[in-house]
Amino acid sequence: MKVLVTGASGRVGANMVRRLTAAGAEVRAMIPPGDPQAPKLAAFPQVQVVEADLGDQAAINVACKGVTHIVHLAAQLMRGDTPVDRFYDINAFGTLRLLEGAVQCGNRLERFVLTSSDGTYRPGAPPAVPLTEDVPQLPGDYYGTGKLIGEIVLRNHAVQYDIPFSIVRFATVVSPEEAAKIFRVDFWRTMLGWHRLGKDCHLWPLFDGHPELAPMYEAAVADAAPDTAVGLAGPGGEPWTLSLVDVRDAVDGVYRALTEPGALGRAFNIAAAEPTPHDEGAAVIADLFEVPKLMVELPIRHQLELSIDNANRHLGFRPRHDYRDMVESGLAMTGTDSEFIPANATSGVAATWQPR
């Protein structure tokens, strides 16, 4: 198979290129012009690298020419200063341009895999616990809405042009060298600080009506050392929960969505086997780094949990890595790792905090 991978220098993208080349596929890697992460692809001299902006139909047509499979990973996660119409143009209509590129080139696509997100479920106020693929998708933010529009565009084109497809909706994807930054004082400070963005944030429903969350957190961690392990809890100490997915498992889920017959026409949540309760995540950090553990009780409880039963049943998806394994794998990384490519092209030692 000849596979076009968009976002090929990204956290999942570079590892997907690696997986495909190891499987003997011919790979064309699409990256944005001037991509600072492009050096990650230097390890694959057999891979053809093409530059194309997701807003440039002519460049996308060139990238699509002759491919039999497309894995669409490219996306802009945070809007920042990007105008809203440009943000939608990247995340929604970039999918449209790829589909049109394949159609205009006369390709007979064997599979188009769109990577979507748990952001389509309104993660700030999840409508169900756990989230299954048949839960209504009512995102309520720019990123989740853009991803949902891309899903709809794909489904429409699949009918119109007989395109075999599958969709994967990622939980929070973590590269192992990043894992030790979660369940720390500054991680939750940053997340709770997003309330300052107002409704220009995918978690705004979490903060809606709860302006006290960030001040309460700051009061609770005021005297904590910077390396303290921290988890959040609701009333009565019931821990919050979070669905994560190791980048290695994310790649496995995408590869199965690309190759398994049971993937056709379906959407799949891709996450770790179990969500991570905050008390367990903080305990992992406290244990591995020998630092204090602190649970901060807030007036609400948040549960963001993805069910992977559908991927298990139709794809044979069996994630191998829980949060502890992510952190341990990151600590074991000393440069060139045999299992994953770090998220940043300049990554060196795995974790910000080293064990004592």
From TrEMBL:
<dbReference type="InterPro" id="IPR036291">
    <property type="entry name" value="NAD(P)-bd_dom_sf"/>
</dbReference>
<feature type="domain" description="NAD-dependent epimerase/dehydratase">
    <location>
        <begin position="3"/>
        <end position="271"/>
    </location>
</feature>
<dbReference type="InterPro" id="IPR050177">
    <property type="entry name" value="Lipid_A_modif_metabolic_enz"/>
</dbReference>
<dbReference type="Pfam" id="PF01370">
    <property type="entry name" value="Epimerase"/>
</dbReference>
<protein>
    <submittedName>
        <fullName>NAD(P)-dependent oxidoreductase</fullName>
    </submittedName>
</protein>
<dbReference type="InterPro" id="IPR001509">
    <property type="entry name" value="Epimerase_deHydtase"/>
</dbReference>
